[in-house]
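Priority: low. Protein: Inositol 1,4,5-trisphosphate receptor-interacting protein. Input follows.
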Amino acid sequence: MPVGIFRVCLLVITAIVNHPLFFPKENGTVPENTEEIIQKMKEREESLRMEQLRLEQEIADQEATQKALEKAALVVEETKEEKVRWDMWTALSMVIFLLIELWRQDFQEGNWQDIGGEEDDMAVLGKAFKGVAFPNKAVLASFYEKRILGTTGDMARMREMVEGFADDLLEALRSVCNRDADMEVEDCMGVGSMYENWRVRKPFVCDLIVPFAPPEPYCFRCQTWCSGDSFPPDEQGYGTIKVCRADEDVTGCICDKTKLGEDMLCLLHSQVNTTRPSSEMEDLLCFKNTQYLDADQVMKWFQIAITRAWNRISHKYEFDLSFSLLDSPGALKIKFRSGKSVAFNLTPVVQYENSDVYFISHFPRSSLAADVSSSTHWFLTFAVYERRFIHLVSKTLPANACHVSCLQILSFLHGKQCSLTGPSGLTNYHLKTVMLHLLQARPSQDWAPEKLEARLQDMLKFLEKCLHEKKLYHFFIGNGTVPAELGFPIIFQRAEPLNLFRPFVLRRDVYRKTVDTFHEMLRNMSALINEYTVHIPLAHTNGIRKESL
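Result:
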């Protein structure tokens, strides 16, 4: 019972405590706060929607940019492909053009009659001999015996006399020179037609070359046009000679190529070695303010040295010695009291490395040759190898082979024609080059003495072909089939062939004069030979064209 009454009381108290009248009135604002919250939630929703739209726009912009980049890359790729295709077409077109040009040059030989313009009168290869009275074997043999063969003994006696005097003169030159400051002169060597036994025109002139070297501690370092250095086309066949100290490494140190500065020192070279007064280099015959050997300075030094040497030994001889040409360093003439004279050339040269190729200070020039722009460019001569090649090949030929006879007859005919119509662009060196090419091309048995007439015609036809094409290549330069026995430098065998007729392309007047002289020589050949053959009637000499007289 009491428990029940307690429970009823507790229930009544609880109801009284939880009656609404006991709570404050602010609890009645709950509905107003709910609306504000709802409004804020709407504003937040709108803000989120706007942010979503912005992000979607940025994503769309990025996608558009990406597509534009991909399209640009595709355009570049297509452009590259088109460029590659264009380059391929260009290269293919060039190859086709070169092939057509090569075919045209090869085909020209059989189609000279189609050439128009100023070369219409150019004779077809071999056709120029039609209508020409070519001397027969008997006439050629008689001419050679009576006009040319008799000069061999005179050449031998003259060579012996000139060589003996030249040796004495060079010995005197060494005695008057300062061994510590002047160039060191070596023994002379004979080259050219007099020493290859084919010179026929008088006066006979011996060509001697004299190698020289700088005094110690200097040495020569040679560079050629085919050694990698850039030389213009008109200076192919030339090179330069640098005067250096023997202990100087011109390729391994950059102290002479780069300005080091006042506070820097090369550890390989002392200041004494790298700094050379200009007067010292000029004493070594170098071009002003350079280390390159000057051909003009060498000419002056050699002429002065020769003069001093002759003054030393002139009392031993009963003749006078003088310089015959002012522009040639060693063109000398011996004048006897009887009035006779002997001419010879004594020319200073520089040896190329350890070979028999030489840089020659001054070279006899034809009307084809142009003046070299600098006196530091030296012409290279292969005369020693040419003489050696002729001697080597002669051992394999039949007895009394006709190769030298052909060259002598051709040289005689050309010389006589030039005396009638004036000089041309052809020289005896061109004629010898023709012989060297044919010596290598034809078998040994083709040079038997009874085949003189056929080989002479071969030389004339080969020369005519070269004149038409304006191409006569140097025999040694670019010739990979040079006999190994000669020991010829490989650098020149691997070089580009040197066209000796290149000046004809540039000088049309000289080319036309040369071609006219050559064809005139063909027409006058029989008459020129008959004139010097005793048993041929003199009436035959009237065949010479009057205009050439």
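The mean pLDDT is 79. The first helix runs from residue 2 to 17.
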